[in-house]
Amino acid sequence: MNSLSLVRGVNATLGRLAPQVIARRMRRQFMTPRNFPPKDWEAPWLGSAERITLRFGLSALRWGSGPTVLLMHGWEGRPTQFARLIEALVEAGYGVVALDGPAHGRSPGQEANVVLFARALLEAAAELPPLQAVIGHSMGGASALLATQMGLRTRALVTISAPSRILGPLRSFANFMGLPARARAHFISLVERRAGIPAAHLDVQRYELAVPGLVVHAADDAVVPASEAKVIHEAWFDSQLLHLDAGGHQRLLADPRLIEAVLSMLSDVRAPACLG
């Protein structure tokens, strides 16, 4: 029996005997990110960035100058995972600010969730020049969508490998960890209580999205199903859908087609402001 099978077996047993106990344990695990060191190829981008600290302690990296593009990584991610996109944006004349999400990198906190990520975007936007675009990967994309419902203002929004609703990842985690029904229900309730918003409300089909957008997903994403992109696109009237045949959950961040689509959309939304 491998370690995962053992964990699932223990969770199944404890979940029937003491569902609230195992739910509390799983809630902490679900909301406590691990911080992984950057890959070797990310090192030059760390070295060339300016480290900034926002008013309430949120940490970020900044490159270039010009109209501001704000980036938010995904769960257990890092700003420099956007390296190829950052390079293209800076060369195109944009200033790029990439956040360390709450409890990630040098930003404060022990736990994180999509609501805290969304509030971090609002905090950053309040201290930065008007945003030309917000680009979020995975949970960062979900948080960017949520942040627009909380007052985030930006000329454009890009989601990459993002889920359309939070109940999906919650249920997938609970099932993966082997939680029986009662423990699963307690787990979701605890997450909702901690986040402060019912999970059912964190659903793009409930949102009013009035900003131009781009939805990007790869068919071979093993973390967030590619079908989520279609749900987001159909709920978002003013969005374009870029469906890549390959790129997994993270490799697509460096895909030239993604970069080209982002720059094209930014050019379109920037043009009116540049007219004499």
Automatic annotation (TrEMBL):
Keywords for this protein:
Hydrolase
Carries keyword Hydrolase? yes
UniProt keyword Hydrolase, yes or no? yes
Read off the InterPro entries from this record. AB_hydrolase_fold, Carboxylesterase_BioH, Hydrolase_4
Q: Which GO MF terms does the UniProt record name?
A: hydrolase activity
One short Pfam family name for this protein? Answer: Hydrolase_4
- Which residue numbers delimit the Serine aminopeptidase S33 domain? 68-164
Which protein are we looking at?
Answer: Alpha/beta fold hydrolase
User: To which species is this protein native?
Assistant: Metapseudomonas boanensis
